């Protein structure tokens, strides 16, 4: 059975770019991969999808035909996918790849936070092993309160979908010198981060420092892996994190020949 890698994150966080970069990484290490594009509204994609939902529903056409706005059309398109789900399932079953990457719709809240998103994912993934990659955009990591809200959203995504999750910090190439290291240190030190969050005067905080610190410890149980999709950096670590989840840690490899890392 293939391993599924579901790529999630808010609009613009880098899902499509990461799907493409991860595909390149896997295939250049002799690992067999395939891509499903689940975004009915995307215009251009930098990869060649093995399955593309736009062959079934096109959000732009739905907009034209129904007069719905972009969000309404996206919701309607994802709902319409359910009526094609058997055909999609058959196509997925016919894929021969070991890793199947799923690129999800731009507006995550219209997908992950509605029932249809998880229905579509469950139908496609079935009983196979899957990991969610939750993308956090470095650009939003400028304040401690933003880091906190991003971690809450990451946890919220896990609660909705239930697949073991790796959080991925994207666009690290846009961070200034030393900023990435500072961020990674913060993730290692929930107490210090809690203190910054509680003392962030522009954030509204309903919890005290001890409570935030305890909460952060729970939120930080997911690995956070920094990557740059454009520079192709961080993918050895990302692959290792994915493998820890999918292969359970001990057995580092899939049934595939030894990847050359
Ligand atoms: N500098 C930089 N830009 C990125 C990176 N990943 C994505 N982007 C850019 O961020 C924008 C949104 O990326 P996209 O992959 O479409 O995000 P999606 O909406 O989550 O699928 C695009 O302009 C990408 O070129 C990255 O690692 N570094
Ligand atoms: Mg996208």
From TrEMBL:
* UniProt-recorded name of the protein: Small G protein, GTPase SAR1
Entry superkingdom: Archaea
Q: Which family does it belong to?
A: Belongs to the GPN-loop GTPase family.
PANTHER family membership: GPN-LOOP GTPASE 1, XPA-BINDING PROTEIN 1-RELATED
> One Pfam match, by short name?
ATP_bind_1
Q: Which GO terms describe its molecular function?
A: GTP binding; GTPase activity
Give the keywords, sorted: GTP-binding, Hydrolase, Nucleotide-binding
Task: Note whether DNA-binding occurs among the keywords.
Answer: no
SUPFAM superfamilies the UniProt entry points to: P-loop containing nucleoside triphosphate hydrolases
